[in-house]
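User: Sequence in, structure out. Go.
Assistant: Echoing your sequence, followed by the structure tokens.
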Amino acid sequence: MSRLMPRPAVVVAAILSLLLVAAVIWWLAARPSGAPPARTSTIQAGAVEVSVTPLVLDRSGARFKITLDTHTVPLDLDLPRAAILRIDARAMSQAIWNETAGGSHHREGTLAFADPVPPGAAVELRITGLPKDVTSVWTAP
């Protein structure tokens, strides 16, 4: 009696196929769910360049990375009071500002809102109090 043994090439192909399937499953599971597109909005507001990047737009709230740069005017803006978040055209609560880099001509930090953002909602962040208002718009994932 002879046993049928699989060819080595078939065994290697089967192992590689299983590894590929496992890698795809791991990659899909490792991706953050509900992560917004990391689309940075950079706007010139007079002498101040403002960059806004959405970090979180989901039911846990909204968080944005904010960077302000200038060479001519002081950046003494009270960001939590100057920021207005609208979700589907409704104004939300006041923000919390966590500054990570500060100075008279460069400020950077995270602006967070506790209000939940439903999937597919229109999200608008407006920053007032600069030489020109800054408005950025996204759609929640």
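User: And one key feature?
Assistant: The CA atoms of residues 2 and 8 lie 17 Å apart.
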